[in-house]
Amino acid sequence: MKLIQTNIADVVIIEPQVFGDERGWFMESYHETNFHDALKSLGLPTPNRFVQDNHSCSQKGVLRGLHFQRSPYAQGKLVRVIQGSAWDVAVDIRPDSKTLGQWVAVELSAENKKMFWIPEGFAHGFVALEDNTHFLYKTTNVYNKESEGAIIWNDPRLAIEWPALESGFIVSDKDAIAPSFQAYLEQIK
């Protein structure tokens, strides 16, 4: 597996080693020791163990996010797409971070098999680029409704460069009225 640090050093794109021949292909999607060793080699901390797996299916244009969990239920996420494709975004919301309010993104697809490691302290969102996009993610903590938080996906201060889709975006009512990034900052003071 190859780890590629993004402009926010703690967020990493993972390119797994894929073995293919005329029969198809094989890849190891997760190996705890190898993942931890690879993070350590980059000078990054290792995450808590993964305790929950989630799977969503979205139609083209469905935009989910920007979601996060507050402490003590903060979640690190290892995400990937196994069918279709998605534009995946991580936003740094750590109060004392020098990259607070910055974001990084990557296209994840069944074809490129890339994964995205998003540690605790980040808001996360994605938009499905194809119908029937299946999105999988492992989390380092369980979901807790009282700890959930959100930031509006199109906040002008964050200025996330979402891909232009002819069909536009399909956003849940809840995500459409999420607080601004400024409101989040005022809440954590």
From TrEMBL:
Subunit details for this protein? Homodimer.
**A Gene Ontology molecular-function term?**
dTDP-4-dehydrorhamnose 3,5-epimerase activity
Family stated for the protein in its record:
Belongs to the dTDP-4-dehydrorhamnose 3,5-epimerase family.
- Report the top EC class in one word: isomerase
This protein is called: dTDP-4-dehydrorhamnose 3,5-epimerase
User: What Gene Ontology terms for biological process does this UniProt record contain?
Assistant: dTDP-rhamnose biosynthetic process; polysaccharide biosynthetic process
- Annotated site (Participates in a stacking interaction with the thymidine ring of dTDP-4-oxo-6-deoxyglucose): Y143
A single Gene Ontology CC annotation of this entry is: cytosol
Provide this UniProt record's keywords sorted from A to Z. Answer: Isomerase
What are the catalytic residues? H67, Y137
Coiled-coil intervals: none
Task: Please name the Pfam families in this protein's record.
Answer: dTDP_sugar_isom
CDD domains linked: cupin_RmlC
Q: Which domain of life is it from?
A: Bacteria
InterPro entries recorded for this chain? RmlC-like, RmlC-like_jellyroll, RmlC_Cupin_sf
**SUPFAM superfamilies membership:** RmlC-like cupins
Q: Which catalytic reaction applies to this protein?
A: dTDP-4-dehydro-6-deoxy-alpha-D-glucose = dTDP-4-dehydro-beta-L-rhamnose
Which NCBIfam families would you find in this protein's record?
Answer: rmlC
Q: What does this protein do?
A: Catalyzes the epimerization of the C3' and C5'positions of dTDP-6-deoxy-D-xylo-4-hexulose, forming dTDP-6-deoxy-L-lyxo-4-hexulose.
The pathway is:
Carbohydrate biosynthesis; dTDP-L-rhamnose biosynthesis
Q: What is its EC number?
A: 5.1.3.13
Enumerate the Gene3D superfamilies for this protein.
Answer: Jelly Rolls
